[in-house]
Amino acid sequence: MKAVVCKEFGPVDRLVLEDVPDPVAAAGEVVIDVRAAGVNFPDGLTVRGEYQMKPPRPFTPGNEVSGVISAVAPDVTTRRVGERVVALCGLGGFAEKATAMADRVVPIPDSMDFNTAGGLMLVYGTSLHALRNKARLKAGQTLLVLGAAGGVGLAAVEMGRAMGARVIAAASTDEKLALALHHGAEMTINYGATDLKAELKRLVPAGVDVVYDPVGGALTEAAVRGLGWGGRLLVVGFANGEIPKLPLNLLLLKEAEAIGVFWGAWTQRDPAGHSANVAQLMQWFAGGEIRPHIGGVFPLSQAKDAISAVMDRQARGKIVITTEEESKASF
Ligand SMILES: NC(=O)c1ccc[n+]([C@@H]2O[C@H](COP(=O)([O-])OP(=O)(O)OC[C@H]3O[C@@H](n4cnc5c(N)ncnc54)[C@H](OP(=O)(O)O)[C@@H]3O)[C@@H](O)[C@H]2O)c1
Q1: Given ligand 1 and candidates 236, 243, 269, 316, which is best to mutate, with the most ligand atoms within 8 Å of its CB?
Q2: Is residue 270 assigned to a domain?
Q3: Ligand 1 within 6 A of CB of 215
Q4: Which of 105, 116, 158, 298 has CB atoms 3.0–4.6 Å from 306's, for a disulfide?
């Protein structure tokens, strides 16, 4: 089969597409014929050797796939060959076949196409866990989402809306904000052109209930200054490359909380909670409350362009890699 291979940590453009042996299902695993794989920011960090997980080289990146199960290990009784599924595979997703533990594989409805499915689980799973389990977001509360047109950001906008919150989308361009408005934001702040702290004060003088922050850098403190009494800061990621430092008096003065979010680790520590969230996502998808935006589809041979688009701030919603031979890049 063909697979994207990282031989040594380094720039994304050193990735190569190679013929490698087909994977075999070890105990507890299934093999999936991959139709699409979601591209996530951590994929690029992993290739560059900048992620917390540093796999032995060579390896194939890609943590989430959609496709059809083509083999199951003898001890797997919960999944069967032929099922349409999404799966979290850790690594190995940017390939024609991938293995995943059977308990990390979820069947998808016939109404969900493979590109949508390939980009669904990680961003929506992260944002739902953050908003529901960590921030305890309630209907009627205000939610500020930074990086609101990116992968996890746009998912947070949609789910904040589905949970009945008033969503303020913040992003670096008007074009990105237009997408967030289309997906349920009520108000917008262009932090590329205006001052986030001042705009937040103008829009919500009493302060917001929850800040969803996958960006980091100077925006974090500006957003925390816009929290209201009992507000919650969700620390999701540092896409701008700078881990911010925060004066803790800002939390004390408002009895506010800063809450770390590590969705991947949580799914393994709380499989029942994760299953409940997946069921909620599928229900929202069926009801049209969430409408994943696929901002670009790249063939496997252009995986490095797909990853670069995410790392270079170009992505809108989800970028996916497809294994369908006839597909052409659309971005
Ligand atoms: N905690 C968890 O469990 C978890 C799970 C998944 C992802 N994450 C993290 O969440 C972050 C976002 O991931 P994603 O997949 O949603 O990425 P993404 O689609 O690229 O979105 C990131 C957003 O960050 C903003 N940004 C600001 N400065 C940037 C820069 N220098 N380079 C790139 N983006 C920049 C961009 O929005 P503007 O241009 O509008 O500023 C961009 O849309 C990453 O740090 C990732 O590691 C965390």
Answers
A1: 236
A2: no
A3: yes
A4: 298
- Amino acid of residue 318: K
Count of the separate structural domains present in the chain: 2
| Mean pLDDT in consecutive groups of 10 residues from the start of the chain, 331 residues | 98 97 98 98 97 96 98 98 97 98 96 96 98 98 98 98 98 98 98 98 98 98 98 97 97 98 96 95 94 96 97 95 71 58
Does the beta carbon of 172 lie inside 6 Å of ligand 1? yes
298 and 254 co-located in one domain = no
Same domain, 56 and 156: no
216: left (phi over 0), alpha (psi -120 to 50) or beta: left
CA separation for the pair 144, 168 (Å, rounded): 5
Residue 328 counted as domain residue = no
